[in-house]
Amino acid sequence: MTKLSVNVNKIATLRNARGGNVPNLLKVATDLESFGAQGITIHPRPDERHIRYQDARDLKKTVQTEFNIEGNPISKFIDLVLEVKPEQVTLVPDSVDAITSNAGWDTIKHKDFLTDVIKTFKSAGIRTSIFVDPDTKMIEGAQVVGTDRIELYTESYAVDYEKNKEKAILPFVEAAKKANELGLGINAGHDLSLDNIEYFAKNIPNLLEVSIGHALISEALYLGLDNVVNMYLQRLK
Ligand SMILES: CC(=O)[C@@H](O)[C@H](O)COP(=O)(O)O
Ligand SMILES: NCC(=O)COP(=O)(O)O
């Protein structure tokens, strides 16, 4: 079975909009776990616009399932991850000003850098995963740098799923076959949703984990609004 790790960046975005502690990130993480989530993912960005570095430290004490920290391994990120020691670190090559993650690693060009960083995290007992496009050459490069897992960057799947799902999944099936052949674990994420997740999970052999945030939190709003509006109406009677 594929594990669901919920990315709580959007909860921090909402909290930061008012400067207080509503919604409470730690409570949401605990609630998500009690509802069945098998992991909690965060992606602190250098400007801390949503997840703050302190959130990573606080969540480490709270999260009972698998804690996954994603990010570009700049030196302050490396220090944070080594201090917090999550179960998994996912390396993402996002630029400082990126609105969201928008590319996988070039595992051939960044071979030496990735090899060093991965060795550092693995020596600290932290499982490593690297964010990659569904490109078999990049998967081969991922094995060379010594990562435990890859995370398939699924934005193109999510976009193309709307037009032609059979075609959209093909590069991901090829990438997953290559990863399986090379003994790499497979995670996936970015823009996965209630609409497209089932087809993805059914077609990707040995999909270990998906991390989902943006769509899942949005869907929770859509599916929860009815309940909450009615609770307000009850109190206004
Ligand atoms: C690696 C990945 O796809 C996610 O972590 C995504 O980048 C979420 O980050 P934001 O919430 O900042 O968009
Ligand atoms: N690694 C992907 C992730 O954590 C969540 O991405 P998204 O669902 O917010 O696009």
Structural notes for this entry:
Pathway: Cofactor biosynthesis; pyridoxine 5'-phosphate biosynthesis; pyridoxine 5'-phosphate from D-erythrose 4-phosphate: step 5/5. Belongs to the PNP synthase family. Homooctamer; tetramer of dimers. The protein has 237 residues and is an alpha/beta fold. It has a single domain (3-235), classed as TIM Barrel. Helices cover 49% and strands 17% of the residues. It has helices at residues 9-18, 25-34, 53-62, 75-84, 111-123, 136-144, 155-161, 165-181, 197-203, 214-235, and strands at residues 3-7, 39-42, 66-71, 88-91, 127-132, 149-153, 185-189, 207-212. An eight-stranded parallel barrel has the order 1-2-3-4-5-6-7-8, surrounded by seven helices. Strand 2, helix 3 and strand 3 (66-71) form a beta-alpha-beta unit. The longest helix is centred in the C-terminal third of the chain and has 22 residues, at 214-235. The protein is globular. The model has no long low-confidence stretch (mean pLDDT 97). The structure holds 1-deoxy-D-xylulose-5-phosphate and the ligand NCC(=O)COP(=O)(O)O. Residues 7, 9, 43, 45, 70, 92, 100-101, 131, 189-190, 213 line the site of 1-deoxy-D-xylulose-5-phosphate.
